[in-house]
Amino acid sequence: MELNNVIFAFGLTLFAGLSTGIGSALAFFAKRTNKSFLSISLGFSAGVMIYVSLIEIFSEAKHVLTEAHGDKQGYWITVLAFFGGILLIAIIDKLVPSYENPHEVQSVEDINKPVTNDKKLMRMGLFSALAIAIHNFPEGIATFSAGLVGAKIAIPIAVAIAIHNIPEGIAVSVPIYYATGNRKKAFILSFLSGLAEPVGALLGYLILRSFMNETIFGVLFASVAGIMVFISLDQLLPTAEKYGKHHFAIYGLIAGMIVMAFSLLLFV
């Protein structure tokens, strides 16, 4: 792996992860939540991630693995790695208690509620920050892995995950501010939860760099495709629907697929 590729991949991962801070800032400085915009944006992110995962990343993983292991065995490894990625992120998701789910929709307007010094709310905010950090580890590896391949895949994925992280920033900052009245503490905890993505990317790189080969790369890439499909279906689309109307989420989804398709065509 060339150093320039590693730096580029890490920079994109850092950008995507720290977008939780944008969500936190929106919660404090916006007067109201633009739910239609968030709904369309989250649907758009899901469209980008689903399209690029199934059309580009899965195909790239299959190509690498079939060259290394033959058509049949390589295809089997690709499919197993894809569903292995889904299983990994599903297990992580299952470990997060539902009432402390970081993807519970919060609104900017909630900041204007009176401060209650509620310990339960504070606990919810802290657990949300921890849960988001856990979720962001595989997301960081996904963004970083895409960055190692090239800009045409990596940049759309980084932007999609960054949009996905904005509501997470709101989900952390709102309950913490509501419980403490401390904007600084709410912002810092929200911001820090996003650092799990570059940390996950860095740990993944340090672990894999010494024995990276075509098989490891293919399995990692197929797993990343599975992780992003799961995130899109389990987190992005349901959150998009909660923020707005069903059709807004679907229109955003289709728009994301179209934009991703045409952006990839530019590189053919």
Structural write-up:
- The protein has 268 residues and is an all-alpha fold.
- The chain has one domain.
- Helix content is 82%, strand content 0%.
- The protein has helices at residues 3-17, 20-29, 35-69, 71-94, 119-149, 151-180, 183-194, 196-208, 214-243, 246-265.
- Helix 1 packs antiparallel against helix 8, helix 3 (35-69) packs across helix 6 (151-180) and helix 5 (119-149) crosses helix 8.
- The two termini are 24 Å apart.
Could you spell the SSE succession in H and E letters? Answer: HHHHHHHHHH
The number of distinct β-strands equals 0
List low-pLDDT spans: none
Mean pLDDT: 78
Biggest sheet: strands, sense, closure? none
Shape: globular
Distance between the ends: 24 Å
Number of domains: 1
Give me the secondary-structure topology.
Blueprint: H1 3-17, H2 20-29, H3 35-69, H4 71-94, H5 119-149, H6 151-180, H7 183-194, H8 196-208, H9 214-243, H10 246-265
Helix pairs in contact: 1-5, 1-6, 1-8, 2-6, 2-7, 3-4, 3-6, 3-9, 3-10, 4-9, 5-6, 5-7, 5-8, 5-9, 6-7, 9-10
